[in-house]
Amino acid sequence: MHSSPWKAMAIAVVFLQLLRFSMEVELEPSLGHSDKIVRLPGQPKVGFQQFSGYVTVDNRKHKALFYYFVEAETDPASKPLVLWLNGGPGCSSLGVGAFSENGPFRPNGEVLVRNYYSWNREANMLYLETPIGVGFSYSNSSSSYEAVGDEITARDNLVFLQRWYNKFPHYRHRDLFITGESYAGHYIPQLAKLMVEFNKKQNVFNLKGIALGNPVLEFATDFNSRAEYFWSHGLISDSTYRIFTSVCNYSRYVSEYYRDSVSSSCLRVMNQVSQETSKFVDKYDVTLDVCISSVLSQSKVLNPQPQQVSERIDVCVEDKIVNYLNRKDVQKALHARLVGVRRWDVCSNILDYQLLNLEIPTITIVGSLIKAGIPVLVYSGDQDSVIPLTGSRTLVAKLAKKLELETTVPYRVWFQGKQVGGWTQVYGNILSFATIRGASHEAPFSQPERSLMLFKSFLEGKPLPEIF
């Protein structure tokens, strides 16, 4: 099937835009030093540098993305650069990723406490609040928050990184990895694809690999694996499992929900599922008690509640992170400002994301990246019922078969310390799947030590330890 001339023209226009953005990059002065954080309020003394601030990705609409950058604890000059993206779509990489998952600090009342399994032990970590309208990221034009989708987000993220390099030119040629979770299963492959295409014109990005945690890769497979997960973990009855797989499956319900057309049959099934799974079980970690931080609701869009069911996630603490990031002294230290909103929120209330983008598969893009020689790791916290490991494992195995990749590491346990950290399988030494035992949707939050071991192995391109 031949590409239409219109499609070719559209691609050409995108490249012209990106090249224009690239030329604009060179006009910006080097400002890395002005973004340096002297000290965050309540922060313990540390030996590494931190930076935060804004990068304008659209001069006309003044679209500015907020970032938080933490250099490696030791010898940052020898360590790679890692970009971290949280999902949602519309949830904060600063509040979720940095301050509750794999950043160096976690708020605790008035102070910050050290996270001794911070990923900046192994890399220079760059957290980006994306798209526009998330966290401290903003635009001077409210229209920038409307009809935002995957394509706009990928382009803005690409321009962000180009211009960020201009602030930190000594990182321009550093090995780059992109990591993230949940709806970042859309963000990351699409950003990486743009990088690979852009490098054909102008070699800018030294991309060495991507890692996707509990990612949305193929809507139907990912979502419909939820029924078997619920049933196998005892959350629903045999009869409810039958109707959840025959009368109305989860992907059909979500499709109807976002088209404002939920059928009576789907509503009946979802009400039954909700009643049995109970509002007192966190779907992002089915073994965790529910009195937990609101950051664990980061993927609200993936878990819409049935109409006529008044379920609300119990966020006993509304929350240390929200309270901390809404302090004026903290915002001043971060060089952050609130524009168009009264407070910083974990997930955006002003962003109008094109939620039907959810149905566009990104697993095919992952395949194209592997063909381009980019290593890919898909990992799953095995206590997550929202994007269960079974769906991710199925998709990775199918992709390996399609690409004719042989198994190079057979399915086996891996260790962290003297305990089993999870299970893993590798195909063609370029596509890997791993589970993190006992971990939630936000694996570094619930299993920080095991997640750090996985991250270290990923960066080094080494198989996960098979003995303790």
What are the salient characteristics of this protein?
468 residues; alpha/beta; Rossmann fold; eleven-stranded mixed beta sheet; signal; glycoprotein
Specify the overall morphology: globular
- The CATH class of the largest domain is identified as Alpha Beta
Strand content: 15-25%
Mean pLDDT: 89
- What is the number of helical segments per DSSP (H or I, 4+ residues)? 14
- Strand tally is 13
Poorly predicted tracts of residues:
1-11, 21-31, 292-296, 307-318
Count of domains: 2
Task: Please name the CATH architecture of the largest domain.
Answer: 3-Layer(aba) Sandwich
Major sheet details: 11 strands, mixed
Q: Taking Cα atoms only, what radius of gyration do you get, to the nearest Å?
A: 21 Å
The name of the CATH superfamily of the largest domain reads: Alpha/Beta hydrolase fold, catalytic domain
Q: What is the CA-CA span between the terminal residues?
A: 52 Å
CATH fold group of the largest domain:
Rossmann fold
Tell me roughly what share of residues is in helical segments: 25-40%
Q: Which structural class do you get from the secondary structure elements?
A: alpha/beta
Written overview of the protein:
With 468 residues, this protein is an alpha/beta fold. The chain has two domains: 1-218 and 319-468, 3-Layer(aba) Sandwich (Rossmann fold); 219-318, no CATH class. It has helices spanning 5-25, 93-102, 150-167, 184-201, 219-232, 238-246, 250-257, 264-277, 320-325, 328-333, 363-371, 389-402, 443-446, 448-460, and strands at 50-58, 63-70, 81-85, 105-108, 111-114, 124-129, 138-139, 176-181, 207-213, 376-381, 407-416, 419-427, 431-436. The strands form two sheets. Strands 1, 2, 3, 6, 7, 8, 9, 10, 11, 12 and 13 form an eleven-stranded mixed β-sheet that branches. A hairpin with a 2-residue loop joins β11 (407-416) and β12. α4 (184-201) packs parallel to α11, α5 (219-232) packs across α12 and α6 runs antiparallel to α8.
